[in-house]
Amino acid sequence: MRNVEVTSYNEAWPAMFEKEADSLRKIFGEVVPAIHHIGSTAVPGLHAKPVIDILPVVTDISVVDTYEEKMAAHGYEAKGENGIAGRRFFQKGGDDRTHHVHVFPKGSSEIVRHLAFRDYLRAHKRAREEYGRLKAELAVRFPEDIDAYIAGKNNVVKEIEKQAMIWYRTKAGRR
Q1: How far apart, in whole angstroms, are the C-alpha atoms of residue 52 and residue 130?
Q2: What does the alpha-carbon distance between residue 80 and residue 115 come to, in Å, rounded to a whole number?
Q3: In whole angstroms, what is the distance from residue 175 CA to residue 165 CA?
Q4: Over pLDDT 70: what percentage of the chain?
Q5: Are the beta carbons of 79 and 90 closer than 8 angstroms?
């Protein structure tokens, strides 16, 4: 059973991301032209579950399946699409997760969604603080129920995503 642990922001998280991103670059080589730190651990000041979320971008998603053995040798469990079409998801650490890897093909709208969410929270202190407070409260309410924790923040996440996409498109000059 996975316990729900939400902690204050840890200044070591960016370095933990960089270390793991270097390992992923060695595993995938030129198949991965970009790797992004996403999720709450990528937002300074945000309370988070201490799991580093990593988003490698690939040119061809089908190629990722041929790397499952190499990923397993580095402690990763392949989970297929795991609920998001076109993604390849890997987790490390079993019930005591340390890393999630979300691989998407170049041009995927999921990449934009994740980066917009991260960048919006980085740029909007009030949204970051409110979201962090909610996560901390839910972790206390549901310490042994990850599904209830996720469900409890779902509406807020959707609203932040909506605002983030508007902000991101405006900021990037996109329509």
Answers
A1: 21
A2: 22
A3: 10
A4: 97
A5: yes
